[in-house]
Amino acid sequence: MKMPSKRRKELLIAATAAFLAIAVTLPFVIDYVSISRRHHVPLPPGNIATPNERSIRWNDESELTRKVLTYWADRPLGDWKSEGKIKAPRTLLARLMLGVDLAATNDYLLSQEPWGNVGSTWPGNPNGDYDFTLAGLIPILYLFGDDPDVLYPQTRDHLVKKLIPIDGGEPLRMVPRTAGLVPDTENHLLMTEGSRYLKNRWLMLHGDSSATYDNIANGLEEWLLGFIEELRSAGLYEFNSIPYEGYTLTALLNLEAFGSTEVQSAARRVLDQLNWNYAVGSLRFRRFPPFRRQYAHASDTSLMGDRHVGLIKPWISLLPERPENLKLKGNQHIAIWACWSPYRLPDRTARWILEKPTDYFIRIGHGADSSPEIYSGGPGYLLSAGGVNRGPRSLIVARPITLCLDDGANDLPGVVHLSGPGKDFRQWNNTGVWRNTAVAAGPVHLPSKWEASAESRLWKVFQREANLCVGVHSQTDLGVVHVVRSENAEQVLDSLDKSNANKETLRSAFQIPNGPRLVYDVDAPKNRWVIQRVNDQIIDRNFDAWPAMSGTTDSPVTPRDDP
């Protein structure tokens, strides 16, 4: 049977339109492909377990959490369309928590409709990101949905039926309108599907027995548990991301607070892991690790610019014995979750955030085509590797290697740092950190007020604390930093000069005084650790296959004991 010419013409027009649409949007889709993990490959766990024991009796509130709530409650309720993504939901939550302006708050919620769609925003889905709003509305529903004096019944019903429009059991895995080609990112999946799951759960817990809302029957809980397990076993793809890690953390806190027993436990395991990573990779709330997404933040120099600190400081403020005068200058939009969430840090994690009890050396793997994190630290100091970019689509920002001390410096120029070659982070392999030692293919940058306590032709030694010295060798294309426990800078200089007197030898090797000899390649390929050998031992340089966390959390040991 011959197709009518009119029908053929209609099909041709439709096919042409589809082709043109694909041609126009394909470049955007291709650019978006690298924002999520393509294959789930579990990492070996390594020899350092994530702490999970809890015995501390935490406070329910602190001066800092009250300040965070007041900060939000005092804000005006702005336009829903322009501020409904981040600011308005937090202002609403804070007012309800403090019990202020309840009538106006309820009226505001009742007058709103969804301002957009869930899923990542891109030219094909210009009104995406409504899942950010959902993640802020879910705590309002669960915390106050059963309190009609705070969240009025008609407001609650409007919240459930209109403002949280997603339900059922089919997760939205792909970025909207990408023809099923591009998986959405971790933070979007957790915010979208966590909110869908928790809306279903709310309805089931409040008497709606429809199979649509049964997270067991519709398969959503099984899918969500599988996805959370991927995050735990393979690690976050968007590791240390600025700004996305903050939204991943808050979405996990929603699930840890309001999910089923199984979902709560799964979310808590991931939170414990991420918070332990923060503990070993920070000093006095300062942190400067490599991160994946966004390149726009590559020039950030704040040592407190990551979003994770927005939760860590308020949590620490709830300890029965806590630091005085804890302040939070930014990340208030993340911090409000610590003001209501029941989650608390494991004991050991909290102690390590406050004070490192011993010297340690830790490597954190992030899987294939990624960058490791490497830390050498102890009481009063932290050497942090800056990582390595793995090509434009890796979205990894390599940063300078940094040395943080107990001196209050909060910005990159205020700490010792080194990187290279040049100024383009895409060309760096800043993985050259070993125990108490760092090397890179560029000079050492010193804080402007530092003055050498002892100096020779090749070395400068800075006495920074009563028992801590920093030795520095710096050339245009080579930097070496060595941290020493000593009260005598002259003795440290003498030992460095005797052990490392040859300028050319330092380009490839450093003899740790009274310790092993490090051999390194500061121009190492981007898939290999800069450190090559320790004494005559060949070590595992393939950091794509490194465990989730390995190393030592006690006094330094001989290289052969290093996993």
What does this 3D model show about the protein?
The protein has 563 residues and is an alpha+beta fold. It folds into two domains: 63-352; 357-552, no CATH class. Helix content is 34%, strand content 14%. The chain has helices spanning 5-32, 63-73, 80-83, 87-98, 102-110, 130-144, 153-163, 186-205, 220-234, 244-258, 261-280, 309-317, 332-335, 347-354, 489-499, and strands at residues 291-292, 360-364, 373-378, 381-384, 387-388, 396-397, 401-405, 416-418, 429-430, 433-434, 437-440, 444-445, 454-455, 460-465, 468-475, 478-484, 509-511, 517-520, 531-534, 537-538, 550-552. β3 (373-378) and β4 (381-384) form a beta hairpin. α9 (220-234) packs parallel to α11. Mean pLDDT is 93; it is low at 556-563.
Topology:
Elements (H helix, E strand, L loop, with lengths): L4 H28 L30 H11 L6 H4 L3 H12 L3 H9 L19 H15 L8 H11 L22 H20 L14 H15 L9 H15 L2 H20 L10 E2 L16 H9 L14 H4 L11 H8 L5 E5 L8 E6 L2 E4 L2 E2 L7 E2 L3 E5 L10 E3 L10 E2 L2 E2 L2 E4 L3 E2 L8 E2 L4 E6 L2 E8 L2 E7 L4 H11 L9 E3 L5 E4 L10 E4 L2 E2 L11 E3 L11
Antiparallel strand pairs: 1-6, 2-3, 2-21, 3-4, 4-7, 5-9, 7-8, 8-12, 10-11, 11-16, 13-14, 14-15, 15-16, 17-18, 18-19, 19-20
Helix pairs in contact: 2-4, 4-6, 5-7, 6-7, 6-8, 6-10, 8-9, 8-10, 9-11, 10-11, 11-14
Overall average residue pLDDT: 93
Classification by helices and strands:
alpha+beta
Alpha-carbon distance between the termini? 72 Å
The major beta sheet can be summarized as: 7 strands, antiparallel
Counting structural domains, the number is 2
